[in-house]
Amino acid sequence: MRPRAPIAALSRLENRADVTLTPPRDESLAVWVVQSKWPNGAWRTEIVPITVRQWTITAPPSDAAAPAEVWVSVVDRAGNQSTPVRVREPAGS
Questions:
Q1: Measured between alpha carbons, how far is 13 from 45 in angstroms, rounded to an integer?
Q2: HSE value, Cβ hemisphere, 13 Å, CA-based, for 64
Q3: Quick one: how far is CA 33 from the chain centroid?
Q4: Structural contact between residues 31 and 47, judged by C-beta atoms closer than 8 angstroms
Q5: Which residues contact 87 (CB under 8 A, 6 or more apart)?
Q6: Could you report the per-residue pLDDT of 5-14, keeping only the tens digit for each?
Q7: Which end of the chain has the lower number of beta carbons within 10 A, N or C?
């Protein structure tokens, strides 16, 4: 059975993005999967320890802008991945 989707918020700053990560409650989780799409069309996937609650995504050398999209999911200890959620900046930012 898939874990429930996480909650995440995004803050873009020049060539990086800070992602605040909140796991679903009462789940036995192992890692975050943070996927970012860059203005040049390239994708990057990062596997992040579940204990991390703040993750900074920095631009690869080939791109000078913040990521165009960020998606986050969680993986439980049995290897089941949640549905990815698109991370957005809070309204009014």
A1: 20
A2: 0
A3: 6
A4: yes
A5: 8, 9, 10, 19, 70, 71, 72
A6: 999 999 988 8
A7: N
Report, in angstroms and rounded to the nearest whole number, the Rg of the chain calculated over CA atoms: 13
Closest-CA residue to 51 (of 34, 66, 65, 31): 31
Residue range 31-89, pLDDT digits in tens: 999 999 988 888 999 999 999 999 999 887 766 788 889 999 999 999 999 999 999 87
- Token representation of residue 37: 């799409």
Tokens (6 digits) for 23:
């796991």
Q: In which band, very low, low, confident or very high, does the pLDDT at 23 lie, cut at 50, 70 and 90?
A: very high
Q: Report the predicted TM-score, pTM, of the whole model to 2 decimal places.
A: 0.90
